[in-house]
């Protein structure tokens, strides 16, 4: 039996990838056990009667108890949440690592956030021998993971994967429309985008910025409201489903990506598939994911204003993706080792 352990995945791009993994595993004839975060109990991919699902709270104690009781229950395991099993098992174990903040911390994180991520990285280091292989989304993450935790590079497999967005009605791009898909976590750097777009609009009186920020991000929501009071055309549509994301990208001319830390950047790939041009942070993750149309320094508002200004020109090159989709290679690895037992 295969175990898919996704205890720490409950929202955002990680949840999108989890749903894709589950869908493809459900298309096989293998028996699969899903260990999931209890926050997705009412929002997960339906599974066949021959497969099993268990929900637990996303904590070390509950997860450790599960592995202690099931050390010899599985033939292959995919830990889809950065951490290997908390106990050594008899299975062939793959750990999918996609948290770049365990590798390098942006300077503008608070001391508390740096302490939390530092502690999580230490726990990862302690349990590093409990996995046979690591899977990562890019060469950048592979190199950083190998260096930080002294892992042999032949134990780290580059396995990027992503689902296609739903097809939506074909419409023409709306000129000078900008968007950024994702919630306003600190590392996503929404504030500098909002301030730069406001300055850009006040100078040129062109453009609209569309964001997808949840109501719990009150500080950024209040900032948007303040800009709207000043007639800056910023629209927040809230957290939306993938069909709505597809519709937004279908219409947008540009996706602006100021994030300070990404292991992959799913919305970059999705945007390019929807023929959007990328105005991207001049950081390694961006260069690993694509050839963007325009670049800027994500810590410098003036640099982003300049990039937005350049986007008004008519000869801006298209963006191109560098990421292959290896979902079936991942499934084949899991099923191959499941059949070896």
Automatic annotation (TrEMBL):
Q: Which GO terms describe its molecular function?
A: glycosyltransferase activity
Which GO terms fall under biological process for this protein?
Answer: lipopolysaccharide biosynthetic process
Annotated Glycosyl transferase family domain residues: 171-315
What top-level branch of life does the organism fall under? Bacteria
The UniProt keyword set, sorted, is: Transferase
UniProt-listed PANTHER family:
GLYCOSYLTRANSFERASE WBBK-RELATED
- The name under which this protein is listed is Glycosyl transferases group 1 family protein
The scientific name of the source species is Cloacibacterium normanense
Traced from the root, the source organism's taxonomic lineage reads: Bacteria, Pseudomonadati, Bacteroidota, Flavobacteriia, Flavobacteriales
């Amino acid at each position: 039996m295969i175990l898919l352990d996704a205890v720490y995945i409950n929202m955002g791009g990680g949840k999108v990838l989890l749903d894709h993994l589950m869908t493809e595993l459900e298309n096989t004839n293998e028996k699969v056990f899903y260990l999931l975060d209890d926050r997705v109990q009412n929002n997960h991919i339906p599974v066949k009667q021959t497969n099993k699902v268990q929900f637990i709270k996303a904590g070390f104690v509950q997860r450790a108890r599960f592995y202690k009781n099931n050390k010899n229950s599985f033939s292959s395991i995919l830990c889809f949440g950065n951490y290997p099993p908390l106990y050594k098992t008899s299975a062939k174990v793959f750990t999918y690592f996609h948290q770049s903040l365990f590798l390098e911390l942006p300077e503008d994180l608070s001391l508390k956030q740096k302490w939390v991520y530092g502690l999580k990285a230490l726990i990862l280091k302690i349990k590093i021998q409990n996995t046979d292989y690591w899977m990562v989304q890019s060469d950048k993450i592979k190199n950083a993971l190998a260096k930080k935790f002294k892992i042999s590079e032949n134990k780290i497999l580059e396995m990027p994967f992503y689902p296609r967005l739903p097809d939506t009605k074909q419409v023409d791009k709306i000129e000078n429309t900008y968007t950024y898909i994702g919630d306003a976590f600190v590392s996503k750097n929404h504030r500098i985008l909002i301030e730069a777009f406001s300055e850009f609009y006040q100078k040129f009186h062109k453009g609209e910025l569309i964001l997808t920020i949840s109501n719990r991000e009150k500080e950024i929501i209040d900032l948007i409201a303040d800009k709207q009071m000043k007639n800056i055309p910023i629209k927040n549509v809230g957290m939306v489903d993938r069909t709505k994301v597809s519709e937004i990208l279908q219409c947008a001319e540009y996706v602006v990506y100021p994030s300070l830390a990404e292991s992959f950047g799913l919305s970059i790939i999705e945007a390019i598939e929807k023929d959007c041009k990328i105005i991207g942070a001049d950081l390694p993750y961006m260069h690993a994911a694509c050839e963007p149309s325009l670049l800027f320094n994500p810590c410098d508002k003036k640099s982003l204003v300049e990039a937005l200004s350049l986007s008004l020109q008519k000869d801006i090159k298209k963006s191109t993706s560098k990421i292959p989709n290896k979902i079936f290679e991942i499934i084949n690895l899991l099923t191959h080792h499941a059949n070896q037992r």
